[in-house]
Every structure is written in structure tokens, then in C-alpha cells.
Specification:
InterPro entries: ConA-like_dom_sf (IPR013320), FTP_domain (IPR011096), Peptidase_M4 (IPR023612), Peptidase_M4/M1_CTD_sf (IPR027268), Peptidase_M4_C_domain (IPR001570), Peptidase_M4_domain (IPR013856), Zinc_Metalloprotease_M4 (IPR050728)
Keywords: Hydrolase, Metal-binding, Metalloprotease, Protease, Signal, Zinc
Protein name: Neutral metalloproteinase
Distance between the termini: 40 Å
Radius of gyration: 28 Å
Number of strands: 37
Strand content: 25-35%
Organism: Streptomyces crystallinus
Helix content: 10-25%
Family: Belongs to the peptidase M4 family.
Length: 712
């Protein structure tokens, strides 16, 4: 039986629960996993905290890190995904969140995170809070209502830094609620990233052509609506004394109210703001703008259609999955030329549009805005960098899928965003650059764009996945790599992206991370060798997002010369791309990976045994100084300088096996990087092989992780 080793203890506070000096779980012999009942969310959270305490390396945790619960999801088979937010010396860490993925029996399988190394920095600011607030306030445009500042660690920066996160609340010049976040370097006082957590349909100033307290509603009723954008529809309403109200008790008491052409005087619409829509006969609107209830029909139907899509397709019970419906305000402001979602008040606002434009109560706009709430409750994607584009793209994707799911005759589904508001759509999914500002292909500059424009990369990926490349009745979609993509349809594409969002993406995820997350999602849903997974890869390549270490059954082509030629080099995709003895590639908590949560564990049984690990690779003839590198840890019960148990690093070419180096029980150590010369194999396709051999007594374990073959 393999022993526990190389694991330190760590005190972690998770969701208020302190796990002090948590010990390493007992290791288990290799064999079939037992099936356990589906756990509760509380049990999943408890087990995840224990796993983090036992294997801090899997989440890049240091002695000063604590974690609090962000979200917990459990698959039908009991597989757990526990999303945790990181604190460093008590400070929130932007980009430090992690998802712990565990088997139904609680065994740690893998982790999802963007933090590369454990944090180590001072949390003593050199710039005062007052100075930081002054910097942020000077940049604020609009009517300011208040501000606050808190110290955070910005782990989204190339080097994690201490910063003041200043939030200035108020009203933007166009009347929108405004919650502008600015990071001010706590050492230099320089303003950095800035973003607004009020999410609008278009960039404020861009014209259309370029937690809620829920009141108890009355009995559920079924009303008839004559909308401006959605046409004639059936509405969920509630009966009240003397009539009916636009409040739907069957969908979490989601309600629609009249803003009476006012804008917020606070920074968010407060509970009870606006006026309720009531009616005596439960017939709403007349299909024209002469009746104020007409656009209320649009908005209320938007709540209904969005709820039904998430509930019926993904099993999600409301935006936060807590059974609570959203609130919508129509007739917001005067000639307000936008719509938006305010997560702080859990509400939507809709403008009537500028002079000559139409109300923003289009169905895909409703689905788009409320999907920002879904993103906030799940991945929590930042609203800057690549993550900002993914945030906006997610709303465009699900707004489109809400529209297709509703299949309204008055608003026929398509892959355009906001096409009914004005003469030209707000965004095109088949080729986003057609709007003149969005990107169709990922570049290193994507992260620097406004999220409404960097979202084009994700939108283009979705279109290729759902429809495919080339010309169709929906549009004409080129690929950035010249390849051809055959679409899968909306159902599979939506399910893959929803699982990627809710299961694998974290706050600072990049487009490369999105490729990895959606490959994992497709593998979970359809299998690694499935057409669906292969299409995910083709579609990401089709928008310029290059292959990552995570692939579908090893179908990704060899990386270019100069990068790591080994696939899945850190074993985070399990045994993918490797040939290994049964159970050798593992995330067993009896030992610790050098990085991530998976590693290769050869031998360690204390009996006559041989384990092997191998992968084929072509060493380019043009390589200047090809090398094999890997991190190796050796733990043994043997004593003395005699080599009883050995690990050989080998290269197999044809029928010839060359041993590059031999390691043994005589030199036990923690992880040490080993580098070996491959110059003799330039221009050859060879097999990199590790062979661990153990004698009949006293166990020796050889742990291998973070391998690479480089060209010089």
C-alpha cells in the first residue's frame, strides 16, 4: 500500500469553518472506486476544505491563505465542484479563486484556477485610503453618490500587487446606475484597471445603431400580453385585490414595474422603486407605444423566457439558482438609449431608446442582461481583460439561446444581437468584426478592448460551434485559421458552454482557459473522443485561440518548435496523451503534485513491482539544444547507500533503449528538477520513457511532474 508523504499541514478557514492542522488522508491501494450516495452541498464544501488543507499545492496555497465558499454544484452522479474565493492575510484576492473538483466519494480529482504560484507580498499600504479614493473620484464621470475603498491583492497582474479597490457609486451621465471599480496601486498610487459592475447592452454613449427583497404575490394567474417587440404572448401574473399585477409567482415572483421616465437618485433601483403595473382584466398593452404597458409586456415576457430557458434546458432554478425571480423597470429615463443589469439590486432597466430608435425591450437583450446575473453567481468573470470579453460573450450566447428557445413568431430567432432596436444589429455573431469595432479573431490586444468588443471572439466561437463556418441561411462565417467547422446546433453548444461557465471557469479566466474549460465540459458531457469535443477544438482554433495542454483524446497537433513538445506535460488531464501503468497517473492525496493536482506516482508498494510511463515525441532536426526536463521527488523506507529500487529515464528509438539517467532510493529528496540532453535524437521520433523498479521489500516512491521536452 502506498504511504502518505511530502504533504505539510495548513490552517484554512472556509466559509467560516476553521480546519486547523488538517492531516493527510490515509492513502489507499490502487483499485476500483466505491460508489457513495450523492452528497449534500454542505458535505461537498466540508470535504473540499479538507482536500485544500491536505494538498495546498493543488490550489497554490500558502500559509496565509484562507478560502470562503463562492458556489457549490454537484453532478447527478455525485461528482462535486466547489468554487472557493481566496483571502490572503484576510484580503480578497482578485483572480485567486479556485474550483475543487472531487469524485462522488470526495476524492480530489483536479482543480481549476489561474493563480500560478503561492502569494508572497506585504499587505501594508504606502498610499492612504483617502489618496486612493481621490484618484478614483477624479476619474468618475457623472453624479457621485458615495465611495468606498478596500485593500485587495490583484493577482490578475503579471506580478500580484497590493491595491486599493475603490468603488464609486452614482449615476452615469446617461442616467444609468453606476458602480465604477478602480484599482489604485497601494504602493505607487497609480490608477490601474477600471470597470463598471452595472452591465449595459451597448457601451454607454454608443448609439443603438453602432439582492432583491421579494414581496409575497397573490395567486398565480395567466394573462394576455400585446407587446411591442414580442407580439402576442401569454404572461404569468398574480391576482390582487381588484385585479392583476405583473408579478409571476410561478417564476420566483419576478415582476415588471414602471420607472415613470425617472432615473435612480441612489446608485441602484431600491426595493419598491417605480410603480407596479396593474390591470383589471389581465390583458396588457395594445401592441403600440400609446400604451405604457406594451413594453412592460416585452420585459415581463423576457423574465419569463429567460427563467424557462435556464430551468428547462439546464435545470437552473432562477438566475442565482435560488428560486428568486428578477425585477424589471421599463420606461427608464427620457430617451434612455440602453438597457442594463444591476446585480446589486438584482434588477433590469430598459430605456425607450433615443429619438427615432425603438425600446430596448427586445427578447435577446433581456436574456443577455439577466445572464450577467448568472455569470456573477457562477464563474464570477471579471469585467476587464479576456475575462471581460468572456463575460459579455456569455450574455450574448445565452441571450441568443433564450431567443431560440422561445421561438417567438414576432421575434424570429437569429444570431444577431439587438437587431430589432434599430436599422442595424448591435452585434453580429457570424463575423463580429462586421460592426466595425468588435474582434472576430483573438489577438494579444483582445484583453485591452472594451468587453463589448472583445466579446466578439467568444461570439464567433459560439456561431462556429452552433452553425459552422462558411455561408448559411444565418450568415457567412470565416475562420481565422482557414479551417472548416461543421456546426453542432444550439443544444449541444449551449450545454457545453453552460457547463464550462458553471464548472470550470474562474474569475480571471482567459480565452485560452475558456478553450480548456469547454474541452473539459464537452468531455464530461459527450466523451473525449466525441464529435462534440473535436468540434470545440476546431472552433477555438477557428477564432485564433491556440491549442492548450488539454485536448480531446490527444487529437491536438504537436506544439510548434521552441515550446514544450510533450502533451499534457503536468498530467492535469489525467492519463491523456500518456501510456502508463494502471493508476500511475493520479491525484491521490497520499502524496503531493509539484504543480496542479495530478502527477505520476511510480512504485511505492514495498514488493517486487515495475511501473512505466511514456509518451512519443518528434525531436526537430533543427533543434539547437533539445532537452528533457522533469521534476522528481523520491521517498523511501530503505536505508543506506545501496540502490535497491531504481527509476530510469530512458529514450526508446526503434528497438534500442537508451538510459539517460538512473535515480534510486539512495538519494531521497523532495521535488528537484532534472534536465537531460536529447541532442543524440534530433530529427527522430522517439518515446520518452520512465521505468520504476522496486525490489521485494521496503517501499520507494518515485513522483514525477511538470515534464517537458524543449528544443533549445
Amino acid at each position: 500500500m502506498k504511504r502518505s508523504l511530502l504533504v505539510g499541514s495548513l490552517s484554512l478557514a472556509v466559509s467560516g469553518l476553521l480546519i486547523a492542522g488538517a492531516g493527510t488522508p490515509a492513502s489507499a491501494a490502487k483499485g476500483p472506486r466505491t460508489v457513495t450516495p450523492k452528497p449534500s452541498k454542505a458535505q461537498a464544501l466540508h470535504d473540499a476544505t479538507a482536500q485544500v488543507a491536505a494538498t495546498p499545492g493543488a490550489v497554490r496555497a500558502g500559509a496565509h491563505d484562507t478560502f470562503v465558499s463562492h458556489d457549490v454544484t454537484i453532478d447527478k452522479d455525485g461528482t462535486r465542484h466547489v468554487h472557493l474565493d481566496r483571502r490572503y492575510q484576510g484580503l480578497p484576492v482578485l483572480g485567486g479563486d479556485v474550483i475543487v473538483h472531487s469524485a462522488p466519494n470526495g476524492e480530489l480529482r483536479s482543480t481549476s484556477l489561474t493563480l500560478k504560484t503561492p502569494l508572497s507580498l506585504s499587505v501594508t499600504p504606502k498610499v492612504s485610503k483617502q489618496s486612493a479614493v481621490a484618484v478614483a473620484v477624479a476619474q468618475f464621470k457623472g453624479s457621485r453618490k458615495g465611495s468606498k475603498a478596500d485593500l485587495v491583492v490583484d493577482a490578475t497582474a503579471a506580478t500580484p500587487t497590493l491595491a486599493w479597490q475603490v468603488v464609486v457609486d452614482g449615476t452615469a451621465p446617461d442616467g444609468s446606475p453606476s458602480h465604477v471599480h478602480t484599482l489604485v496601486d497601494a504602493t505607487t498610487g497609480k490608477a490601474g484597471k477600471t470597470w463598471n459592475t452595472f452591465h449595459s447592452t451597448v457601451v454607454p454613449g454608443h448609439t443603438a445603431n453602432a439582492p432583491q427583497t421579494t414581496a409575497v404575490a397573490g395567486a398565480a394567474a395567466s394573462g394576455t400580453g400585446h407587446g411591442y417587440q414580442v407580439g402576442d404572448v401569454t404572461l404569468g401574473t398574480s391576482s390582487t385585490s381588484g385585479g392583476y399585477e405583473l408579478k409571476d409567482p410561478t417564476r420566483g415572483n419576478g415582476e415588471t414595474r414602471d420607472a415613470q421616465n425617472k432615473t435612480v437618485t441612489n446608485d441602484s433601483p431600491p426595493a419598491g422603486w417605480g410603480v407596479a403595473f396593474t390591470d383589471t382584466d389581465n390583458v396588457w398593452g395594445n401592441g403600440t407605444l400609446s400604451d405604457r404597458a406594451t413594453v412592460a409586456v416585452d420585459a415581463h415576457y423576457g423574465i419569463q423566457a429567460t427563467w424557462d430557458y435556464y430551468k428547462n434546458v439546464h435545470g437552473r432554478n432562477g438566475i442565482k439558482n435560488d428560486g428568486v425571480g428578477a425585477r424589471s423597470f421599463v420606461h427608464y429615463g427620457t430617451n434612455y438609449d440602453n438597457a442594463g443589469w444591476d446585480d446589486a439590486s438584482f434588477s433590469m432597466i430598459y430605456g425607450d431608446g433615443a429619438v427615432g430608435q425603438k425600446p430596448f425591450t427586445e427578447l435577446d437583450v433581456a436574456g443577455h442582461e439577466m445572464s450577467h446575473g448568472v455569470t456573477a453567481a457562477t464563474a464570477g468573470l471579471n469585467y476587464f481583460g479576456d475575462a471581460g470579453g468572456l463575460n459579455e460573450s456569455t450574455s450574448d450566447i445565452f441571450g441568443t439561446l433564450v431567443e431560440f428557445n422561445a421561438n417567438s413568431p414576432a421575434d424570429k430567432p437569429d444570431y444577431l444581437i439587438g437587431e430589432k432596436i434599430s436599422s442595424t444589429p448591435l452585434r453580429y455573431m457570424d463575423d463580429p468584426k462586421k460592426d466595425g469595432v468588435s474582434q472576430s479573431c483573438w489577438t494579444t490586444n483582445t484583453k485591452n478592448l472594451d468587453p463589448h468588443y472583445s466579446s466578439g471572439v467568444g461570439n464567433h466561437w459560439f456561431y462556429l460551434m452552433a452553425v459552422g463556418s462558411g455561408s448559411s441561411t444565418w450568415g457567412n462565417s470565416p475562420t481565422c485559421d482557414g479551417g472548416t467547422v461543421t456546426g453542432l446546433g444550439n443544444d449541444a453548444t449551449g450545454k457545453i458552454w453552460y457547463r464550462a461557465l458553471t464548472t470550470y471557469l474562474t474569475a480571471a479566466s482567459t480565452y485560452a482557459d475558456a478553450r480548456t474549460a469547454s474541452i473539459k465540459a464537452a468531455t464530461d458531457l459527450y466523451g473525449a473522443s466525441s464529435t462534440q469535443c473535436a468540434t470545440v477544438e476546431k472552433a477555438w482554433s477557428g477564432v485564433g485561440v491556440a491549442p492548450t495542454a488539454t485536448t480531446c483524446g490527444g487529437t491536438t497537433t504537436q506544439p510548434p518548435s521552441g515550446s514544450n513538445l510533450l502533451l499534457n506535460p503536468g498530467f492535469e488531464s489525467g492519463a491523456t496523451n500518456w501510456t502508463a501503468s494502471s493508476g500511475a497517473i493520479t491525484n491521490d492525496t497520499g502524496a503531493t503534485a509539484h504543480g496542479g493536482s495530478y502527477y505520476a506516482w511510480l512504485d511505492g508498494y514495498g514488493s517486487s513491482h515495475t511501473d512505466t510511463l511514456s509518451q512519443s515525441v518528434t525531436v526537430p532536426a533543427t533543434a539547437t539544444a533539445p532537452k528533457l526536463s522533469f521534476w522528481l521527488a523520491i521517498d523511501t523506507k530503505e536505508t543506506g547507500s545501496t540502490a535497491y529500487d531504481t527509476l530510469k529515464a530512458q529514450v526508446v528509438y526503434g528497438t534500442t533503449t537508451t538510459t539517460l539517467a538512473t535515480y534510486s532510493n539512495a538519494t531521497p529528496s523532495g521535488y528537484v528538477q532534472r534536465t537531460l540532453d536529447l541532442s543524440a535524437f534530433k530529427g527522430k521520433t522517439v518515446t520518452i520513457k520512465f521505468t520504476g523498479t522496486e525490489d521485494s521489500s521496503l517501499a520507494t516512491s518515485f513522483l514525477i511532474d511538470d515534464t517537458s521536452v524543449t528544443t533549445g
